[in-house]
Amino acid sequence: MVDLIPESWYNVVPDLPEPLPPPMDPPGRDSSSIGLLNEIMPRAVLEHQFTVERWVRIPDEVRGAYANFGRPTPLLRAKKLEERIGTRPPRGFADAIRAARSRGVNPVIAELKLASPSGFRAGDVDVERYLRTVARGAAALSVITEPVAFGGSYDLLRMASSSVDLPVLMKDFVVTSGQVRSAHSLGADAVLLIVRLLRDAELELLYSEATSMGMDVLVEVHDEHDLERALRLRPRVIGVNSRDLLTLRMDGELQRRILGMIPGGIVRVAESGIRSADDLRRLRDSGADAFLVGTSLMENPGLLEELLDA
Ligand SMILES: O=C(O)c1ccccc1NCC(=O)[C@H](O)[C@H](O)COP(=O)(O)O
């Protein structure tokens, strides 16, 4: 149960247009309740309360206590406050996966993919209809933005992000900080980093840039060597792609083995080649927490219901 409880909370203070004024006592008081607060509250609690960090880590002891109280319960957003200050926090990608699991639903990440080097062509698919259908049950949405081989675009990401109330992953071959910034400004809540496309230093830099903007990162691996490198980042989410990106060959056995090697506490996403409820169950039995599905959902959005209940 404790694995399902968020590891951090999102603090809107850094998103405010200007810093908050310092705490003040109500006028006409003889003694200072703020001074008293400083005397009676443990320093760590005060620091937690007045921090300006965007993501604040929840101590393991507190997470353990919540597990004992029977949490997690659904997260409630202060939408009126968000409207008032003209911002919205990133929709947590990892948290949405955990929330779906705690509701007893298989967390499916539905992908919007118009074409692929493996030969898939979406044809004249009605994108808005597809988004409405998957928004009814998927835990998150993945949007491929790469234009040449996948027919994606930044416009597609912007449109998808503003039309669904799901965390949105920007899926692309991200190799520069500019792409990470674009993801954020287009409304992505998470970004894909493919380990084998990046050197360690690049991976670390892009990972920390994305997380400091409040986005989650789906760190994608294919084999043992990728996994070893990915774990050095201490990531919240790892995706295991069964597709070898160079040969396009699928290796489900390798994928299941790697899923089984990912330490507990990290959200494990199985990516590619999921075509049926049986495929999903097999991956779940191998340790996958979430399932990223592109081609088969684009071909048949009705498959979502079967995957959610598998
Ligand atoms: O989909 C491809 O053919 C492909 C080829 C080369 C690099 C990446 C590729 N796909 C990106 C993905 O990771 C998949 O779109 C995603 O996992 C969904 O896979 P699927 O359900 O098999 O469409």
TrEMBL record:
GO biological process, alphabetically ordered: L-tryptophan biosynthetic process
UniProtKB keywords: Amino-acid biosynthesis, Aromatic amino acid biosynthesis, Decarboxylase, Lyase, Tryptophan biosynthesis
GO molecular function: indole-3-glycerol-phosphate synthase activity; phosphoribosylanthranilate isomerase activity
Keyword Amino-acid biosynthesis found: yes
Keyword Kinase: no
Any single Pfam family the record assigns to this protein: IGPS
UniProt catalytic activity: 1-(2-carboxyphenylamino)-1-deoxy-D-ribulose 5-phosphate + H(+) = (1S,2R)-1-C-(indol-3-yl)glycerol 3-phosphate + CO2 + H2O
Domain Indole-3-glycerol phosphate synthase: residue ranges: 86-301
EC number per UniProt: 4.1.1.48
Record pathway: Amino-acid biosynthesis; L-tryptophan biosynthesis; L-tryptophan from chorismate: step 4/5
Family indicated by similarity: Belongs to the TrpC family.
Protein's UniProt name: Indole-3-glycerol phosphate synthase
Organism of derivation: Conexivisphaera calida
